[in-house]
Amino acid sequence: MPKVIIDGKEFIAKENETVLNVAERNGIYIPRYCYHPALSIAGNCRMCLVEIEKMPKLQIACATTVTDGMVIHTQTEKVKKARQDVLEFLLLNHPLDCPICDQVGECYLQDYYMEYGLKKSRIDLKDKNRKPKRRDIGKHLILDNERCILCTRCVRFCEEVTKTSELFINSRGDHSFIDIKTEEKLDNDYSLNIADICPVGAFTSKDFRFKERVYRLSSTSSICLSCATGCKIKVQHNNGKIYRILPDPNIYTNTWICDNGRMSYKITAGPDRLTKSIIKSEEHHLNKAIIKLFDILKEAKEKNLKIAILLSDYLSIEDNFALYYLGFEILKTDLIYASKEKEQKIEDGILINKDKTPNSNAVSQISKLYGIKKYEDLKDCDLLIGFYDDIEKLNIPKNKSVALSYKADKEYDNLIAIKTYFETEGSFINWQYFLRKTAPSVSAPTDTISVYDLCLKISELFGYYPKEKELNKIFNELKYKTED
Amino acid sequence: MNILLNDNFDLKTYITNGGYNALKKSFTLKPEEIIEEVKKSGLRGRGGAGFPTGLKWSFIPKTKTQKYIVCNSDESEPGTFKDREIIHKNPHSIIEGMIIAGYAIGASKGYFYIRGEFAREARIMEKSIYEAKEAGYLGKNILKSGFDFDIVVVRGAGAYICGEETALLESIEGKQGKPRIKPPFPAVKGLYGCPTVINNVETLASVPYIVIYGGENYSKIGVEKSSGTKLFSVSGPVKKPGVYEIPLGLSFKTFFYDWLGGMKEGEELKAVIPGGSSVPVITAEEAMNTKLDYESLQKIGTMLGSGGMIIIPKSQCMVELLYVLARFYHHESCGQCTPCREGSGWIEKTLNKILNYKAKKQDLDLIVDISNNMMGRTICPLADALAMPVISFVQKFREEFESHIEGNCKICGK
């Protein structure tokens, strides 16, 4: 193990580790633009220059491998001057219009300017190079070539991660600019990651730009439910509104997230969000809706009608078990169904799973443990409670159903407005068998309820008061991993 | 060299004058013995950097993996036109040098990377390679030695930067010519990820001589650390401009008066760029007191470079000249590293203002400052290649720049 001295302190480095990585691991931050931990080394921005004893020139920390006994300085006047100079070059042809740029607050140029720059521009405004602006480059992205610092993170992302290679650097020298190779657009399934990794305001997300300043956003760690991969995400929100989803890079599951997952927050505030429950085609406030639903169930039970319950791969473990409890213990029905086991694999070699449901790993376990029937066995019933998406897929007569839904749908007589997992907690087991929880980042519309609470309330109306322990016992029976 | 013979580019002429004897001799030697001879000769890279050739060859790992030898003929530095002369007049010496180099490092394939503008020269090389192949000097089992070697001519697309060895490799691989980060050096990871030696045309053309006459004899030419002969391509208003082969260590004075015949009538020597446009300029006085070898030129703060000597007369405005250079380097910057990409354009813009009497007083210090900020902070030396002339021009001819700022240049009269 090589020993190195950085800024007077001795550190033990790993074999073939770069100066930047050793420093970072030990809490010494070296500024950078082109370096990204998940991409190859480009070494072109020259921001991470450091002084290494016995080397005549400054070296880039991102590409220099440590050797035993290396003495590195990251804070000398020579290094600071170099950073200041590189920054001056980067800002030379950069527009000076931060107030109207959407990157404000998460811009590396701004951050380092405050630390190393603070110099007046030495070039006349009219001498600045002009480049294409506001280019509609793909389904999700806008490209401003003038703000670009040509760090090539985006080019490398498309080459190395998505392997779609849509982007390249066109032309040379100070007239070079990021361009798209074909007439087609940049719309691979992961394109929005480019807006994240772009250290400046060159690539911005069409969905997010100019909606909210990033420094006003709060972040909540959660998980993405768009498929069985279950990526860790950061949900960013302000004043009860979600503005965007970012990946929460981790060694277990994901560095990036797909565009589909990023857009999944739209269910919380879309125009078709179901905010009030509908019973017998009439809209009701929450409490009234619960009582109406109870009445329906009570009547059905008294008449000995066949009530079916659908467990759902889209719902959390808690919600599924509460549904099971409601069916089995309260309604005393054995018509409880779940989907059959799904094939799970990363189908694009990156993140997107063949199984597009977030919780089939848990639900199939519950099914086995409690001998639950499969959806295919559902032949006939008089009343059915289940998650909207499942009912849609199963082609069950809509007038017989009580759909638990985020989404308004006029064709249904009975819809219960439930909370999304951006608004309530829920546990899921992803395809790697990791148990992870969503966390509420915004509050739900007043008249919505979580499936768990709904089941609990109905039980209470039937005169049952299940203890939390009783509903949580399922966690002792499931097989899963945790991250530590 | 056979440069002065008639039909010198012909294989027949080359063979009649002892051509390919070095190759025959090489096959009687072990590869490491050849490397040893080249090391003994003290031959240094003739492309500009002056790195010892034998040492470069010895860095190639002794494994059985695929290796390559690449001949760098992307001669595009303003003022340099020596390699073109070798291609015109002695192409087989390059081919023979490449085969020997290939044999020495264990490469079975050579690439001849030639500047895009050299269309005629590319045809000459292709024809010569064909001739050599027909005669059995290239191909499988050359001269029954069991050694296979082939050469492919690759034409560039007009980028100066592709003369930088790693940008050249990128270009051969079909990518944009952008220099790679070093390490890894090409000797470890070069063309297509294989160990590769990249040598200049003139370097490889010197190899047959070294093999025939021995490294020690070659090292007797020239001076201590600068052995052998060097081609100088001389441009400017001298009586006899052109390409000259001189023993290293020759004094500039002798070269200037005895070989070049001094300045043309009515012209007076002001300055000299001794080794291609990217090296610092020296004044007439400095030039007259120096010798033409690596060390002597380094001592006075400039470099031997590629030997592209530009003679500057008193009638030439230095601002105008530097502007031409700046425009060239700005145009040729690949745009990869920030300081070079942004700095080169900035210098050109500022120099344009100085040239056209539109500059402010501080602009003169500005271009020097920009140059200093660019130097030594990029992947390849292109930033330095612009910065060094700027700094030396302003330092040595400041009054000419000041006259442009004040608005009364007597030389260019613009």
Strand order of the largest sheet of chain B: 6-5-11-8-9
Q: Over the alpha carbons, how many angstroms does the gyration radius of chain A reach? A: 27 Å
Q: What is the first-to-last residue Cα distance of chain B?
A: 46 Å
Helix content of chain A: 25-40%
What helical percentage do the residues of chain B reach? 40-55%
How much is the radius of gyration of chain B in Å? 22 Å
In short:
The complex is a heterodimer of chains A (484) and B (414). In chain A, 26% of the residues lie in helices and 19% in strands.
Describe the secondary-structure layout.
The complex is a heterodimer of chains A (484) and B (414).
Chain A: E1 3-6, E2 9-12, H1 19-25, E3 49-52, E4 59-60, E5 71-73, H2 77-92, H3 108-117, E6 135-136, E7 141-143, H4 153-161, E8 167-170, E9 177-180, H5 192-197, E10 203-205, E11 218-223, E12 232-238, E13 241-247, H6 259-262, H7 266-269, E14 277-279, E15 282-284, H8 286-302, E16 307-310, H9 317-330, E17 336-338, H10 360-370, E18 373-374, E19 383-387, H11 388-394, E20 401-405, E21 414-417, E22 426-429, E23 435-438, H12 451-461, H13 468-472, H14 474-477
Helix pairs in contact in A: 2-3, 8-12, 9-12
Chain B: H1 11-16, H2 21-28, H3 31-41, H4 53-58, E1 68-73, H5 82-89, H6 91-105, E2 109-114, H7 119-134, E3 150-155, H8 165-172, E4 196-200, H9 201-213, H10 215-220, E5 229-235, E6 242-247, E7 250-251, H11 252-259, E8 269-273, E9 282-283, H12 284-288, E10 291-292, H13 294-299, E11 308-313, H14 318-332, H15 338-355, H16 362-374, H17 382-396, H18 398-406
Parallel strand pairs in B: 1-2, 1-4, 2-3, 5-11
Antiparallel strand pairs in B: 5-6, 7-10, 8-9, 8-11
Detailed description of the structure:
The complex is a heterodimer of chains A (484) and B (414). With 484 residues, chain A is an alpha/beta fold. Helix content of chain A is 26%, strand content 19%. Among the domains of chain A are: 3-89, Ubiquitin-like (UB roll) (Roll), CATH 3.10.20.740; 277-477, Rossmann fold (3-Layer(aba) Sandwich), CATH 3.40.50.740. Chain A contains 14 helices and 23 strands. In chain A, the strands form seven sheets. Chain A has a six-stranded parallel beta sheet with strand order 18-17-16-19-20-21. Chain A is elongated and about 90 Å long. The mean pLDDT of chain A is 95. Chain B folds into three domains: 11-220, Rossmann fold (3-Layer(aba) Sandwich), CATH 3.40.50.11540; 229-313, Ubiquitin-like (UB roll) (Roll), CATH 3.10.20.600; 318-406, de novo design (two linked rop proteins), CATH 1.20.1440.230. Chain B contains 18 helices and eleven strands. In chain B, helix 2 runs parallel beside helix 6, helix 3 crosses helix 6 (91-105) and helix 15 packs antiparallel against helix 16 (362-374). Chain B is α/β, with parallel strands linked by helices and 414 residues long. In chain B, 45% of the residues lie in helices and 13% in strands. The mean pLDDT of chain B is 95. Chain B has a five-stranded mixed beta sheet. Chain B has helices at 11-16, 21-28, 31-41, 53-58, 82-89, 91-105, 119-134, 165-172, 201-213, 215-220, 252-259, 284-288, 294-299, 318-332, 338-355, 362-374, 382-396, 398-406, and strands at residues 68-73, 109-114, 150-155, 196-200, 229-235, 242-247, 250-251, 269-273, 282-283, 291-292, 308-313. At the A-B interface, helix 2 of A face helix 14 and helix 15 of B.
